[in-house]
Amino acid sequence: MTAANAVEVHGLRVRYDNGVEALQGVDFTLPRGTALGIVGPNGSGKSTLLKAVAGLVKPSDGVVRVQGRPPRALPPGTIGYVPQVEDVDWQFPVSVRDVVAMGRYPRVGPFTPFSAHDRSAVARAIEALDLGVLADRHISALSGGQQQRTFIARAVAQEPLLLLLDEPTTGVDAATEESLLRLVRGLVADGLPVLMTTHDLDRAPEWFDRLIVVDRKVLADGKPADVLESGAYAGIREHTHTHGHHR
After folding, report:
1. Which domains does the chain have, with CATH numbers?
2. pTM of the full structure
3. Using 50, 70 and 90 to split pLDDT, how confident is the model at 173?
4. SS3 string of 165-204?
C-alpha cells in the first residue's frame, strides 16, 4: 500500500449466495485527492463495488484496502457512504439538522453530548449542501433531491477519509446537480478521495479525474475523455442491448 493511495482493490470477486458473480476480478487504485467515476450498465456490479469498498459486502476473493486496511478494520466514521436514493419511511419526526447530525454518531456515539467541533462539522455540512433554509424542516416534507442532499450532508458531517456516492445525481434537478458537482470538486481539492457511480457520461470530464468502465470486471480505466473516446462503454451498451443482461 503506498501512502498516496486511499483505496486499493486487487482481484476482487463478489459472488452472491444465489450463485450470481457480481464482480469478477476487479483491480483499481484511488489516490488521495482524486474523484474516480464508475460507469457501466445496470447489473454491471457498480453498486456492489461501492459496497465492497465500504465493507458492507464481503469479497469472495481478492483484496480491498482503504487507508491500508480492510474496510471493516477501520475506525467508525472513516468511510462516508451514500447509497442510491431509497424511499425512506421516517416514522419518527426528524428534521434535516437531526439527520445531518447522525453523521457524527459513528465518531461520538449517539448519547454523548456534541462538542463544539461536532456542532461545527454539522453546520458546515448543512451550509455546503445549501440546506440552511431547510434545516428545521421534517425530512419527509422534502423533495427527493433535497433528501439526497441531506444524506450527502450527513456523510460530509462525518468528516470521512473516503466518500462513496452511489448515483447521487439520479432524480435531482439541474441546480442540485450543479451544487453537488461544486461540492465534490471542492472536497477533492481539499484532498478527500471520492468514488462515485454515475449514468451521466456527458459530464464525466467535469466530475472526475479518472473514470473506470465496469461490467463485472474493469473494461477501461483512465482520464474521462480518453475512456469515453475509447468506445469501451458504447461497446458494452450495444452488447447488453442485443443480448440482454441479468441485474
Report:
1. 1-75+197-247 (3.40.50.300)
2. 0.91
3. confident
4. EECCCCCCCHHHHHHHHHHHHHHHHCCCCEEEECCCCCCH
